[in-house]
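User: Hi! I'm working on a homework problem where we have to compare a predicted structure to a textbook description. Could you give me the structure for the chain below?
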Amino acid sequence: MNIKMDKLEELLSLLKKKEDEKQKNTVLWVLAIIGAVAAVAGIAFAVYRFFAPDYLEDFEEDFDDDYDDYFEDEEK
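Assistant: Happy to help. Predicted structure tokens:
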């Protein structure tokens, strides 16, 4: 009877280990998917920033030109 109980406890412990391993595996997959999505988003943002024109730079140049004209008019 004692041997049967030991076998039963051993089987129960193996099942529990397998269940714990399954949970760890699920968490690992979820973290891997989140990491992959974050990496793709980061790459997409970097590509966008590289290829997107900088409209503010054009605005600043026009703004400087307007002030230059204003000061040249005062000197005359």
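For your comparison, note the following. The chain has a mean pLDDT of 80. Residues 4 and 10 are 10 Å apart (CA to CA). Good luck with the assignment!
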